[in-house]
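Interim report to the steering committee. The following record documents the input for Water stress and hypersensitive response domain-containing protein (338 residues).
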Amino acid sequence: MSSCDKPEIVERGTKKKENEEGEEGEDSGFLGKVKDFIQDIGEKIEETIGFGKPSADVAAIHIPKINLKQADIIVDVLVTNPNPIPIPLIDINYLIESDGRKLISGLIPDAGTIHAHGSETVQIPLCLIYDDIQNTYDDIQPGSIIPYKVKVDLIVDVPVFGRLTLPLEKHGEIPVPYKPDVDIEKIKFEKFSFEETIATLHLKLENKNDFDLGLNALDYEVWLCDVSIGGAELAKTENIKKNGITYIDIPITFRPKDCGSALWDMIRGKGTGYSMKGNIDVDTPFGGMKLPLDKEGGTTKLKKEDDDDDDEKINSLHTSHGSLALYVRKRNVYNVTA
């Protein structure tokens, strides 16, 4: 038997392993070619037709409405579609958090369509309810400014690429507003009669917020013993510093005879309840706000005092919140008898 006729002696395990490796190599080569072919076709289609991945960016954040109850927030997202056909905006997932704590989250389905070869601004409306936030996190106090982060996921469906998620983030600050505290420091009478009395209210306004308030206007009404003695709307410009106090004068005209027993109780030295309600329109670093003025539960009475400067101080009005001085100019002094 020649050497070429001799049988090849190979271990069984080694032969099997070589056969498996050979089969795997064939499969790998075939599948690899198929994948490369599909990828090449996709790239050629993309180059020929012009498909591409859309992009998105947070263009701006607006606070169109803010008051003591809630803050309405609009997130403007600029979405660019480079494709020759419109693409559907399937869902929008959003989250607002502060220092890693969730404030609100939600989903907006079927958010519209982005036109072909164009850019559009998609507005995402959000709403922060302050009571919900403060009930969840008791360390968030009225008057404070809190940091926030807005997270938005835009889910779009693009031919060739399929469903894509475009994640976005934006940081900022938002206030938790608090109404100012109001006190009537004194009332100065310019004219006094039972038919018509003209007076000036000297108000003390305390800003309890961590941001300035730019006063533009206010409206108010004053009651004595549940009887309105008058009110008005007034354009007034004043800057109230954060956590600061300012004083403003506002006019009031009323007829004492319409006050009934309230005025007579006050003249006789008896306590008479008073209250003041209204609103102030202010500018803030976060936009315009309309904040309430509210003072209730005060009591008043008249007390004789000495002369003071150029005005004759007839009486002072003492309240549970302080002393209110009543003045009448010397040229317009009126006697009141019970």
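The chain has a mean pLDDT of 76. The committee is asked to note this result when reviewing the revised timeline.
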